[in-house]
Amino acid sequence: MECIMVPPGRHHLPPLPYDDNALEPVIGEETLRIHHNILHKAYVDNLNTAELSMVTVRNNDDYQYIKYWEDELAFTGSGHILHSIYWTIMAPLGMGGQPGPNTMHQICCYFGSFDAFKAQFQNAANKVQGSGWGILTWQPTWNRLEILQAEKHQNLTQWSGIPILVCDVWEHAYYLDYQSNRQKFIEDWWALINWFEVERRLILAMSGIVPLTITNEYI
Ligand code: MN
């Protein structure tokens, strides 16, 4: 079967869709140049390093530093994804147009009005604890938009991912049966997986018809 994907360690810094000074006076030329050419590039480079290191880890079957490398995958991967989006959702002053009909419809469906959406988005972005992002996200599970804050970039996720297979490792999921032996729980849990549902979710996710799969509670 053909593998169409970004191979490990092969991410590239996407070029800006405008000149370095195109967003002035809001974002100055030097700010944009440093942000894109240096900071975003560092995320790309470090993501490539992390992915190639994980290849070595898998080849050597040596998971001693798995937490470090997973943290790197989340931090640099989410940084790369979010910055790549950030550049494309901006345009020079006066060139960005108005919210499109679908955008306006979905915003009004969930937030009630454009003004309410704008107020929540701006407050959420303003109140991010420390460094991070304000994010308008499409929540495919519930077929609607939501506004979320991201602290730093990631909290161990890569934004835009769609969950396919999940394992709850909070203590409440196993403690009565396995006490503190989470590793044994995970090993045994493996036999519970419904691979038919995993396949179905993966096919849906890959099809772009993002899964309205796990709940129809709104119907
Ligand atoms: Mn940034």
What does this protein look like?
The chain is mostly helical. It has helices at 29-60, 66-88, 101-111, 114-126, 175-178, 182-189, 195-207, and strands spanning 132-139, 144-151. The protein has a single domain, classed as 3-Layer(bab) Sandwich (minor pseudopilin epsh fold). It is built from 7 helices and 2 strands, in the order ααααββααα. Strands 1-2 form a two-stranded antiparallel ribbon. Bound molecules: manganese (II) ion (MN).
Radius of gyration: 21 Å
Structure class: mainly alpha
Order of helices and strands: HHHHEEHHH
CATH architecture: 3-Layer(bab) Sandwich
CATH homologous group name: Iron/manganese superoxide dismutase, C-terminal domain
Distinct bound molecules = manganese (II) ion
Give the strand order, joined by hyphens, for the main sheet. Answer: 1-2
Write the layout of secondary structure elements.
Blueprint: H1 29-60, H2 66-88, H3 101-111, H4 114-126, E1 132-139, E2 144-151, H5 175-178, H6 182-189, H7 195-207
Antiparallel strand pairs: 1-2
Helix pairs in contact: 1-2
The protein binds manganese (II) ion.
The site of manganese (II) ion (MN) has 3 residues, from helix 1.
Concise overview:
The chain is mainly alpha-helical.
Comma- or semicolon-separated keywords:
disordered C terminus; mainly alpha; minor pseudopilin epsh fold; 7% strand
